Each structure stands twice: as C-alpha cells, then as structure tokens.
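Weekly modeling sync, notes
Attendees: S.R. (lead), two postdocs, one rotation student

Agenda item 3: backlog of single-chain predictions. S.R. asked that every request posted to the team notebook include the full sequence so nobody has to chase files. The rotation student volunteered to paste the first one in as an example of the format we agreed on. Action items at the bottom.

Example entry:
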Amino acid sequence: MRQADQPASGRGSLLQSFRAVAWSFFGIRRGRDYERDVSRLNPVHVVIAGIIGALIFIAVLVLVVHWVVSSGVAG
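Predicted structure, as returned to the notebook:
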C-alpha cells in the first residue's frame, strides 16, 4: 500500500529528501525511518537538500551575529 506522501514510482521526492536532511541536522531520526530513507531517497536529492540546508543554516547564523553586533549586546 502506498502512503499519501510517497510517489507512485517508489522513489523519494525532493520534499522527502528535505525532510530527511532536516531531521538529520537535529540528529533525531529513528532507525526504521533511516532504513526507509536509504532505500527510497534519491542520493542527488539528498545532496541538493543538504547543500541548501547548510546554506540556510549559515545565513541564519550570519543574520543572528549581525543582529547581536548591531544591537550593542556584544560589546
């Protein structure tokens, strides 16, 4: 039986790859879900999602540092 968020082709979508990468950033992924991801997700999608996730993370860090420095809290 196919889940609602699973494409008919049996391969994971880009959105599923983003979800898997997001859970990986937090380090909270059940073994069962990890095994399902390994068997269904497209490695290219995972790499793209990882790069985009890392860029978003870096952008958030830069914005937080800029906000702290400009507010005068840091110095």
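Discussion: group reviewed the output briefly. The chain has one domain: 14-71.
Action items: rotation student to repeat for the remaining queue; S.R. to check formatting next week.
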